[in-house]
Amino acid sequence: MHIPDGFLDAKVWTTLGVVSxxxxxxxxxxxxxxxxxxxxxxGKQIPMMGIVSAFVFAAQMLNFPxxxxxSGHFMGGVLAAILLGPFSGxxxxxxxxxxxxxxxxxxxxxxxGANIFxxxxxxxxxxxxxxxxxxxxxxxxxxxxxxxxWLSIVLASSACAVELVISGTVPLKVAFPAMAGVHSLIGxxxxxxxxxxxxxxxxxxxxxxxxxxx
Length: 214
Known about the structure:
This protein has about 210 residues and is mostly helical.
């Protein structure tokens, strides 16, 4: 789902870069305010962000096979948002994407804003509120996190497809099945991993599960 350089029209990547930049600025402000309320050192919020970032980065390095010889990897937006709150989850996803872009050339520099929009804003923030809505309805964290994780990766990949179509890179009839279709299968793995990790934390360190009020 990492979009390389040259795949997006300048108007598309510029617009998404501005949207992602403004949202990141808001996320920094909210996370900083939250850290101050927990103490001068940031309480457990800042260390947890480092741990979750490392986990998401490592998990994204592990690919699993999908139909037709395609492979996918864990995204981690919903998991990060549930553990840290939606805006801190966005910062985690953004830091992972920036390192992947600058160090491993995974995703283009001009497309960085689009990748943050897809996997951070949609994947973490939107995915988090989808999770909250489902959780309120069915009261089951495991099922709620699975569905929200699956939806987050399908929605993020669909947004990626739309961006490629608007940019004139590929037609909709090619982009949407290729992205949303394959990622609907990848999303199953995303949901299982998220539910398992949260289930383990719920049994061992329930205090780490936070809900950020915004």
